[in-house]
Amino acid sequence: MNNVMLITGGSRGIGAATAQLAFEAGYAVALSYRSDRDAASAVVEAIEAKGGEAIAVQADMASEANIVRLFEAVDERFGRLDVLVNNAGIVDQVSRVEAMSAERIERMMRINVTGPFLCAREAIKRMSTRHGGNGGSIINVSSAAAHRGGSGEYVDYAASKGAIDTFTEGLAKELAGDGIRVNAVRPGVIDTEIHASGGNPDKPETSSANIPLGRAGNAREIASGILWLASEGASFTTGAKLDIDGGV
Ligand code: NAP
Question: How many A from CA of 30 to the centre of ligand 1?
Fold first, then answer.
């Protein structure tokens, strides 16, 4: 049986690229999505067409019941879990803080912070040697915004990723004796559809001048960092925040 990697938000962008690289590295892949069923099915079909194993499960990260159901679906199909990639995340429309509603901020924190906490909880129950598991790895997708602050664009998003960095730090130490390594990647501006969802579709292009390497990154460049953190090559790495941002 191949090792199993669960990637939240695996239908598009960084999650879809991670699913593809995970398959290439020999993992069976479970991915979740919120609404883009066709995109999720396309990722699964591309892996299956090359002889790999993959499933896609609809699960809204804002719903605890959906998250529990997602992990049960992985249990049912694969009967094991080795790596969780907490990737699903959102931005909102560009806004200064004084224009943000409580609903916006709560939605941001629910999807970008509470969701990853609950996914980690479910993964720990299955992977921790304390609970009879074989150990494993958790990789959280943070953002360069966590240390840059997102001023004038989305401080709420940046703060949610700051919480993810602290979560990574604390959980890594908490689980060090449980056979589970916990790390994060902190992407800079990456060319995905997330920018259009925040009303800023040209961000990869317009940001290029401010990125030392002169361009936005692509999803595969983040996925390769995630795969390294999951691999044996990173066996002494826990609590790390790997900046993959073109040098910002
Ligand atoms: P993306 O292209 O917009 O894809 C987002 C993925 O997350 C999709 O699979 C989407 O599912 C899923 N998703 C969104 N909301 C969800 C919810 N409530 N429940 C379940 N799934 C949900 O985004 P991306 O750029 O690949 O971003 C992935 C991660 O990288 C995020 O955590 C983001 O904050 C982080 N990041 C991105 C950048 C960047 O510049 N792109 C930079 C730093 C950090 P559907 O397809 O069903 O909508």
Answer: 16
pLDDT of residue 47 exceeding 90:
yes
Mention the CATH class of domain 4-244: alpha beta
Q: What is the pLDDT of residue 35?
A: 98
What is the Cα–Cα distance from 24 to 17, expressed in whole angstroms? Answer: 11
Ligand 1 atom with the shortest distance to the CA of 88: 7
Distance 129 CA to ligand 1 centre (A): 30
pLDDT band for position 50 (cuts 50, 70, 90): very high
Token pair of 65 as six digits:
């019941």
Report the share of the chain in percent with pLDDT over 70: 100
157 as an active site residue: the answer is: yes
Distance between Cα 32 and ligand 1 center (Å): 11
What pTM was computed for the model?
0.99
Distance from C-alpha of 20 to C-alpha of 29, rounded to nearest angstrom: 9
pLDDT at position 71, please? 99
- Ligand 1 pocket, residues with Cβ under 6 angstroms: 9-15, 32-36, 39, 60-62, 87-90, 111, 141, 143, 187, 189-190, 192-194, 197
Cβ-contact 127, 82 below 8 angstroms: yes
Q: Evaluate whether 225 touches 217 at the Cβ level (below 8 Å).
A: no
* Ligand 1 atom index nearest CA of 62: 18
pLDDT at 1: 82
Q: Would you state the pLDDT for residue 236?
A: 98
The DSSP result for 54-92, as a single string, is: EEEEE--TT-HHHHHHHHHHHHHHHS---EEEE------
